[in-house]
Amino acid sequence: MVLADAPNMTATALAALGERPPHPWTGQTLSGAQITCASLEAEGVTTVFGYPGGAVIPLYDALPGSGLHHVLVRFEQWAALAADAYARVTGRVGVCMATSGPGATNLVTGLANAHLDSVPLVAITGQVGQPMIGRDAFQEVDITGITLPITKHNYLVQRAEDIAPTIKEAFYLAASGRPGPVLVDIPKNVFVAKAPFHYPATARRAGYQPSTSPNMRQVKLAAEAINRAEKPLIMAGHGIMLAGATDLFARFVERSGIPVVFTLLGLGCFPEDHPLALGMMGMHGHRHVNAALSETDLLVNIGARFDDRATGKISGFIPQAKVVHVDIDPAEIGKNVKTDVPVVGDAAEVLKALTPLVAARRYGQWTGWIEGQRDEALLAALEDRPNHPEPYTIIKAISDASDGEAIVATDVGQHQMWTAQHFGFNHPDRWITSGGLGTMGYGLPAAIGAKLGRPDLEVWTVVGDGGFQMSLNELATAAQENLDINVAVVNNGYLGMVRQWQDLFHAKNYSEVEISGPDFVKLAEAYGVTGIRVKTDAEIRPAIARARSIKGPVVIDFVIEPEANVYPIVPPGASNSDALHRAFDDTDV
Amino acid sequence: MKSAHTLVVLVEDHPGVLNRVVSMMRRRSFNIDSITVGHSEQPGISRMTLVVVGEDDEVEQVGKQLYKLMEVLKVTDLSDQACIAHELALVKVAAKAQHRAEILQIAGIYDARVIDATPASLVLEATGSEQKIDALLAMLRGFGIRELVRTGRIAMARGGTAAPTKGMTTVSNGVGDGAREPLVALTN
Ligand SMILES: Cc1ncc(C[n+]2csc(CCOP(=O)(O)OP(=O)(O)O)c2C)c(N)n1
Ligand SMILES: [Mg+2]
């Protein structure tokens, strides 16, 4: 078992916002574009992801004179998503930039992704010049209007002297409280206008006071509920990592003896190989995990938002349990699930206060019962399927080869769920996946962002043949930046997850899910990177070993059984307890 | 049980704030019965009155979501407080000579003022609760209402304190002791 050492998001992000020496350009009269660059540098930003265009030409004019490393993506959406992954692995605020109009609209999906997964991100967009605003000018879109519901906040900057304070505030909002994306829209003429540069030391807004320290009365009520429970269960979410609370969380679990189930984004906040770690819950959660949810008498949710993919049908979720909900966002309390003991606060501060109040215990009978619900037959069968590269075997082989230490990004679909189920995450901030939005195309740009954020770590991305075809143009970016990343294409020739739903819930009506693709090996070569094809089980481990030995991007095309399904699966609208399980006696591999 | 809640929302007076509030309400499928915006007693701070119909927990969720907007400074639910909740209506009613006296008599009953008159019409200004204005309109309908505008509800707690005394965040959600409340700028 390894306990976390990795950077933790909000804590690091906030620390990074703290005191630093004044920027060398302080006091000078600069263009808005220079102020933008200097402000980013003053925030400690080193890497930005972006794409130039008319409205940001002045900004790109200033970039080479700054110390920023700009990564030229091939599509702005991947800039936002690379910045999102960069933030997840570094714990700092990710930064992306794009031009007005189509550049800005291309960022939208990435902002929505960061919004739903609470990832700190700052997006800088160019806007048409102020005299043109509102006249449907060339490449004018109302990007602050468009992104209103998918950003934590956004700004249209009106004066060059407002740029520095706005960027200061944007970083503060993005990183503090419940993190999220913030967009700063800057008109072209404001980039050109001049102003003296002074970067403010602090930002403050009367209407923004996130409650980080919990109400002690609530903490005591939570402790009492925990100490009374006979079959308690912890639901561990992304908030634990965002709060930099993984060590505190481990201490809480060790002391309380309460078994832990993870949301998709909670994976890695506590080592999965720990005896008290049960695995992922929800739609593709393990059998024993969802069984435990049906039986528990107290669910302690720390830093998760009761997403419907985690809860299944609400009326069938934790039918016997009282609920303690720890969240930094008061609006999450009672939003989806009725809460008995709400505790609003930062997970780290709550755990600091809560741990000493809970009894040191072990729940032998309860944990024993849960272990008895494990689907042993499934694991045994998965271990022994030599014919096709079995998804399970691929994921397991990557995990084994990297000793479970690699950063693993994924795309969205079946391969994502197989990875979540079987990789075994023992470190925080190494599991990078699009949870709330389920953004296809995320995998490769996420790997690029992750590698640039943590060049010291091995980086893999597991993608489907569908999602990879959305963002494979980023192979060019990876090659240009000479990034050592390995792309595992789980190639089933289908939009597999949709095909699976059609298979199970729509009478096998395979409507528009068969998807052809290029020869991924030749494609890799066309981008000047290595391509490897794997068609049998025996080739899996050697291919992975070879990919790891090659510096630079490598694409492995794992050709798998086309109709392999992800199990368990909770049918849409059903309760977690009604999951379908894998049957091994038919043709379904 | 669903009921109408009167929320007083103090917001920074910036362009686009109304848009942010209304956009959030729409996206989360909260129903706005009426909304009014205007200046408050403090420069730079606008005051909105929102009438929202919903279950108590739904309305509590409205308050929490409002607080997530950076410009929102304070949200108060006046529903369980003694408060004054008024709206203003302007009614242009057809008033032929033979009806004029009767219309003026009705206006008198409802404390409505005549603020414009032509040989064929009167414009009445009425203030008060929605019910009172509804009742006035019911009485006038028979004469022919040519034009009508109602502001929607504005509200204020009764009693001597200048500002709402209690924001929504303490309701039942375990928010930390020091958070949000009291907001210094609004307590003097
Ligand atoms: C941008 C976007 N479009 C559509 C979807 C719906 N969707 C979810 S999974 C999936 C199939 C993904 O296919 P593939 O990338 O081949 O992965 P597989 O499921 O086969 O592993 C689709 C179309 C989505 N999540 N995102
Ligand atoms: Mg596929």
Automatic annotation (TrEMBL), chain B:
<dbReference type="Pfam" id="PF22629">
    <property type="entry name" value="ACT_AHAS_ss"/>
</dbReference>
<comment type="subunit">
    <text>Dimer of large and small chains.</text>
</comment>
<protein>
    <recommendedName>
        <fullName>Acetolactate synthase small subunit</fullName>
        <ecNumber>2.2.1.6</ecNumber>
    </recommendedName>
</protein>
<dbReference type="InterPro" id="IPR019455">
    <property type="entry name" value="Acetolactate_synth_ssu_C"/>
</dbReference>
<comment type="function">
    <text>Catalyzes the conversion of 2 pyruvate molecules into acetolactate in the first common step of the biosynthetic pathway of the branched-amino acids such as leucine, isoleucine, and valine.</text>
</comment>
<dbReference type="InterPro" id="IPR004789">
    <property type="entry name" value="Acetalactate_synth_ssu"/>
</dbReference>
<dbReference type="InterPro" id="IPR027271">
    <property type="entry name" value="Acetolactate_synth/TF_NikR_C"/>
</dbReference>
<feature type="domain" description="ACT">
    <location>
        <begin position="6"/>
        <end position="80"/>
    </location>
</feature>
<dbReference type="GO" id="GO:1990610">
    <property type="term" value="F:acetolactate synthase regulator activity"/>
</dbReference>
<dbReference type="InterPro" id="IPR054480">
    <property type="entry name" value="AHAS_small-like_ACT"/>
</dbReference>
<comment type="pathway">
    <text>Amino-acid biosynthesis; L-valine biosynthesis; L-valine from pyruvate: step 1/4.</text>
</comment>
<dbReference type="InterPro" id="IPR045865">
    <property type="entry name" value="ACT-like_dom_sf"/>
</dbReference>
<comment type="pathway">
    <text>Amino-acid biosynthesis; L-isoleucine biosynthesis; L-isoleucine from 2-oxobutanoate: step 1/4.</text>
</comment>
<dbReference type="Pfam" id="PF10369">
    <property type="entry name" value="ALS_ss_C"/>
</dbReference>
<dbReference type="GO" id="GO:0009099">
    <property type="term" value="P:L-valine biosynthetic process"/>
</dbReference>
<dbReference type="InterPro" id="IPR002912">
    <property type="entry name" value="ACT_dom"/>
</dbReference>
<dbReference type="GO" id="GO:0005829">
    <property type="term" value="C:cytosol"/>
</dbReference>
<keyword id="KW-0808">Transferase</keyword>
<dbReference type="GO" id="GO:0003984">
    <property type="term" value="F:acetolactate synthase activity"/>
</dbReference>
<comment type="similarity">
    <text>Belongs to the acetolactate synthase small subunit family.</text>
</comment>
<keyword id="KW-0028">Amino-acid biosynthesis</keyword>
<dbReference type="GO" id="GO:0009097">
    <property type="term" value="P:isoleucine biosynthetic process"/>
</dbReference>
<dbReference type="InterPro" id="IPR039557">
    <property type="entry name" value="AHAS_ACT"/>
</dbReference>
<keyword id="KW-0100">Branched-chain amino acid biosynthesis</keyword>
